[in-house]
Write a structure and sequence with these properties.
Oligomer: single chain
Number of domains: 2
Distance between the termini: 56 Å
Number of helices: 11
Number of strands: 0
Shape: flat
Amino acid sequence: MIRLLFQDFSHIVVEVAFALVPLLLLFIFFQYVFLKMPREQVLNIVKGSILAFCGLTLFLQGVKAGFFPAGELIGRQLGASTNNWIMIPIGFILGFVATFAEPAVRILTLEVEKVSSGFIPRLILLYTLCIGVSIAVALSMLRVITGWAISYFIIPGYLLALLLTRFAGSSFTAIAFDSGGVATGPITVTFILAIAVGAASVMEGRDPLLDAFGMVSLVALAPILCVLILGIIFQKGGKS
């Protein structure tokens, strides 16, 4: 059991090392040439880098061993059910929960609240992103059931986003497009995408390559629209 859980673990370690070691070397270079930070602070950064390395390695191994198989099995069960419409509310709930737990989303909302001096509250922005991703995942499940093309959602969605930028204010426009990036984090991509692929693979007349993929693009689009709408609400309320 343990052997299966840590199968190909060395490959994950090498991949994470290739991602983090160059960043650490770059920091060391800036430390000796420009920063000259105190030794204690440097040691804290090194310790944090080691913790990040261990965390990313274990997380990616867990995704490979647990998230992907579990997501596909859940998707297959839902797709094979006669009441496969239940995928839509389940997708909405999973989208909300996954975004609420997403580390990148938490960091973004904290930074926005700090930089804006509390003008844009963290919780309001967090729940806005959660609702946006929930709607996107629900629409993705609807696509799997109906077979609608991704272009029916993406083209009008980005046209609407460009229109909303004229009314939301420059600060919310910048936050909105960053929000689309951070919302497509590891939890959403690994677990919920696996559910969509599993469902599309067992549903009659559905092709996972056509009907399941595209969910990430919707997840990136929906928070943009929701944050822009939030900006318009702030504008109407005289807060920006």
